[in-house]
UniProtKB/TrEMBL annotation:
This is YecA family protein. Belongs to the UPF0149 family. PANTHER family: UPF0149 PROTEIN YGFB. GO terms for cellular component: cytosol. InterPro entries: YgfB-like, YgfB-like_sf.
Length: 187
């Protein structure tokens, strides 16, 4: 993963011990959405969404807050960089295809929710490409996981792996496009 030392599995632990119901992919997507609309105090908004009833004094909550703060800093830097450093935080390739595809759908849900926290978007202020990207991300949230990774032939599994890789790359590029337009729109 290009975003420093954080990975999916490493973030799952502090989220789980702090009682966060959402997984690492969805939380990272939410954070990215908040960063793309340049919302004020994104970490505080994120924490308010995923841990609304958490006691700030609990050690597990403090550890989760530190982890999310580090990921926020790394993600903000990756989003502002030349574009090759950013990637959605997803399970590694060794995980089953259906779990990785499900995490991608959850990542997209979180991302769209994060954008929505800034308030309604005026579609007229977005380019056609940005509107299409938002629609495509919404479609990814409805991926049919039952149709993936069955006992199909090896060639079909390789095609599904390739398709998932291409969708992840599309999401990465779509997020960078949306960030550019949404930040410009809010200035």
């Amino acid at each position: 993963m290009a975003q420093g030392s954080w990975d999916y599995e490493r973030l799952e632990h502090p989220l789980g011990t702090a009682g966060v119901e959402e997984g690492a992919a969805q939380v990272h997507g939410l954070l990215c959405g908040l960063l793309c609309v340049d919302i004020e105090r994104p970490l505080e908004r994120l924490l308010g969404e995923v841990m609304p009833d958490a006691s700030a004094g609990e050690l597990s909550v403090q550890e989760c807050r530190v982890a999310l703060g580090e990921i926020q800093d790394q993600t903000r830097e990756a989003l502002a960089g030349p574009g090759f450093g950013f990637a959605p935080l997803l399970p590694p390739e060794g995980w089953p295809l259906t779990e990785r595809a499900g995490a991608l759908a959850e990542w997209c849900q979180g991302f769209l929710y994060g954008i929505g926290l800034a308030g309604p978007l005026d579609p007229e202020t977005l380019s056609r490409e940005a509107r299409e990207a938002l629609n495509d991300l919404a479609e990814i949230t409805r991926i049919d996981l039952d149709a993936l990774g069955g006992d199909d032939e090896e060639q079909e599994q390789e095609q599904e792996e390739q398709a998932l890789t291409e969708i992840v790359e599309f999401v990465r590029v779509a997020v960078l496009l949306l960030r550019e337009e949404l930040i410009h729109d809010r200035q």
